[in-house]
Design goal:
- By secondary structure, the chain is of the alpha/beta class.
- It folds into 2 domains: 201 residues, Alpha-Beta Barrel (TIM Barrel); 52 residues, no CATH class.
- It has a 7-stranded parallel beta sheet. A two-stranded antiparallel ribbon has the order 8-9.
- Helix 9 runs parallel beside helix 10 and helix 11 packs across helix 12.
- The longest helix is centred in the C-terminal third of the chain and has 19 residues.
- It is globular and about 70 Å long.
- The protein starts with 10 loop residues before the first strand and ends with a helix.
Length: 258
């Protein structure tokens, strides 16, 4: 936890769930209280992953989190429903993790709950939920696409899952590129070696920014002459390409200010 203040991540997740044995839940909250008082994460988003709602630990977790000013977001694991009072009870941003079969089926209801601003998922727990293999659900395009479409429909950020093979940085990059191309805006990381790659993959490159600016300029000039589609760099460019280029510039601006 102390190392996290020097990492170049946008968010830091402090865990009260699976990383903490049942007998240590109370001690973990006390440790977080001490750490939160001591450390300063600057502009980074500080999140706490609580125990699953209804687990017997979540009420104490929520009571703890709501008093911590430095904590802006609550990670809700194994989310298959979100009690309506959580947002009002804590005043925090909610980030559910889709990690069960029921969660996948109910993802649209989950992402449109009050206070939800981002969503991610956990392939290991999801694989356990259906009796499958983690490796298969880490790459499952159906699950990734279902979550992304639900999130996009309600203006919620979709964040890709963790990559468990710490030494396979090429594999991490490949998975990150795939999720970025699907429309995900970021990725969970579990080791400092993954952070630089994630930042590189999800931040628009200088060449992408330049191409987007060129397209926006050319299309806006054309529309002033009542032209709705143009030929640019031997490609057809119409309104949807213009909107995508504008989105690239918006994301570039967002990452530069984070």
């Amino acid at each position: 936890m102390r190392k996290s203040v020097s990492l170049s991540a946008d968010s830091v997740i402090l865990d009260l769930e699976d990383a903490v044995p049942p007998a240590e839940k109370s001690n973990a909250r006390k440790a977080l209280t001490k750490i939160l008082a001591e450390l300063d994460w600057g502009k980074r988003e500080v999140c706490v992953r609580i125990n699953k709602v209804g687990s017997g630990y979540s009420d104490e977790d929520l009571d703890f989190v709501k008093h911590e000013i430095k904590v802006s977001s609550i990670i809700l694991p194994k989310a298959d429903e979100i009690p309506r009072d959580i947002r009002k009870r804590t005043g925090k941003i909610l980030i559910p993790l889709i990690e069960t079969a029921r969660g996948v089926l109910k993802v649209e209801d989950i992402v449109r709950c009050e206070g939800v601003e981002a969503v991610s998922y956990g392939p290991a727990d999801l694989a356990y939920s259906v009796g499958g293999r983690t490796e298969v659900y880490s790459q499952n395009l159906y699950v990734k696409t279902r979550i992304l479409i639900a999130a996009s429909a309600y203006g919620v950020d979709a964040i890709d899952s963790v990559f468990f093979e710490l030494q396979d940085l090429d594999g991490f990059r490949k998975e990150a590129v795939q999720s970025r191309d699907l429309g995900y805006v970021g990725k969970q990381v579990i080791h400092p070696s993954q952070i630089t790659i994630a930042n590189e993959v999800y931040t628009p490159s200088q060449s992408e920014i330049a191409a987007a600016k060129n397209l926006v300029k050319a299309y806006e000039v054309a529309t002033k002459s009542s032209v709705g589609a143009i030929r640019l760099d031997e490609k057809l460019v119409d309104a949807v390409h213009y909107r995508k280029a504008k989105l690239t510039l918006e994301r570039a601006e967002m990452f530069s200010s984070s």
